[in-house]
Amino acid sequence: MDLNRINPEIHSAALLESLPTGKAKRAYDSKIIYLISGETSYTVGGGKKSRMAPGNLLFIPAGCVYTIKSKYMRAVVLSFGFTPSEDGKVCPSPALEADFDESLCGRIPEESAFSSPIFIEDLEGERDGLIRMCNIFLSENGFYLAELSAMLKLLLIKIAEHSDSNALPSSMVENLDNYIRENIHDEIYNTELGAIFGYHPFYISKLLKDKRGITLHQYVISYRMKYACSLLRTTERAIAEIADDAGFTDASYFTKTFKASFGMTPKEYRNKFSGDHI
């Protein structure tokens, strides 16, 4: 889901000082747990036991099994959906489920970039804003749901930006590569890729930068350059024609980009490597 288009709907916002502990639960809605004080251990999605400290935030996607265990903790817990209810009515839900309930599995399927649990260590700066969200939810004053939706959307964007995932999912890398390869002759826009793969384009670009050291735009250009190199090596087609086939509408821009990438013009490259195979 494109983060530009989400309109999150708060179902519950609570400041809790005690939590049901130890037993497995299944998230009825998507959840954000932000620890204000104390310490807790948790598991999500069948993963290993981990600890939370003050300032830590945990996102749990809808339908995910989790456990929370703590002797004492004070935490903000948000329960929400990424889109408004179909009937236009807010469906209240518990801040935290009591126990594991198989019947709740998939109650609200979320098609979003937030398909897996996310843990972030350093979000001290969000503490006051999260507490304020709880107070607004309890007040029910004016357009409080609209205000909460806007605040939550900003928080979700920050979570996406702060997510310490170091790599794109392997399936996404493969699908991204295939899409670029199949559409290399056409213009490819970041917003288009974001909509197709269900991620905000800035989020994809950040993950690519973390993993491969290049932005999404540079990733697309690298594919175009590789394709152009292949044609220069193995065909005698005109350079302008190769530029157009590789998705460059301007032959001079193609030449400039090519030289910046390889330190030589397309013609020089052809003269040097003609007859070689990639």
Strand order of the largest sheet: 1-8-3-6-9
Give me the CATH architecture of the largest domain, please. Answer: Sandwich
Low-confidence stretches: 99-112
**Helix residue percentage:** 25-40%
Give the helices and strands, then pairings.
Layout: E1 9-16, E2 25-26, E3 30-38, E4 40-44, E5 50-52, E6 57-60, E7 65-69, E8 73-81, E9 118-120, H1 127-139, H2 144-162, H3 170-182, H4 190-197, H5 201-212, H6 216-234, H7 239-245, H8 251-262, H9 266-273
Helix pairs in contact: 1-2
What do you see in this structure?
The protein has 278 residues and is α+β, with helices and mostly antiparallel strands. It has 2 domains: 9-162, Jelly Rolls, CATH 2.60.120; 170-273, Orthogonal Bundle (Arc Repressor Mutant, subunit A), CATH 1.10.10.60. It is built from 9 helices and 9 strands. It has a 5-stranded antiparallel β-sheet, with helices on one face. Strands 2-7-4-5 form a 4-stranded antiparallel β-sheet, with no helix packed on it. Strand 4 (40-44) and strand 5 form a beta hairpin. Helix 1 runs antiparallel to helix 2. The longest helix has 19 residues, at 144-162. The chain is elongated and about 75 Å long. The protein starts with 8 loop residues before the first strand and ends in a 5-residue tail after the last helix. The relative contact order is 0.13.
